[in-house]
Amino acid sequence: MTPLKPYLIRSIYEWIIDNDLTPHLLVNAEFSNAILPQQLVEDGKILLNIRPEAIQGLSLGNAEIEFNARFSGKPLHIVVPMAAVMAIYAQENGKGMIFDQEDEGSDETPPPETKPPTRPTLRIVK
Question: Which residues of the chain have pLDDT under 70?
Fold first, then answer.
């Protein structure tokens, strides 16, 4: 089964844009495969404005979010693994969704193994 998180992010992003608000992504910047402007990382997190006027080439994929942006005048291709996204919300009113980082990957976890039933045993109690 495909993870739900990318679908939620895409739908909330669309809702925010449709209401002329500013979408922001809160990202855990400590993921090794994330490409982010390190000078803006605070406490291992970064807040990214992903309004269409602020970025170019936005791709909200199932595995990662990618776009091009300028930081301090320098162009940078941003790559955010889906697991690194902590929240998406509208800057103006704070409405959106926060994702539980502890449950990350829970959609891919196999069901727990079950032991076959054992036969009852008898023992003598004195």
Answer: 102-122
The reported pTM is 0.77
What secondary structure letter does DSSP report for 110?
A: P
Domains and CATH numbers, the chain: 5-103 (2.30.30.220)
Mean model confidence pLDDT for the chain? 87
Which whole-number Å values give the CA distances from 3 to 71, 99, 126, in the listed order? 31, 13, 56
Give the SS3 label for residue 30. coil
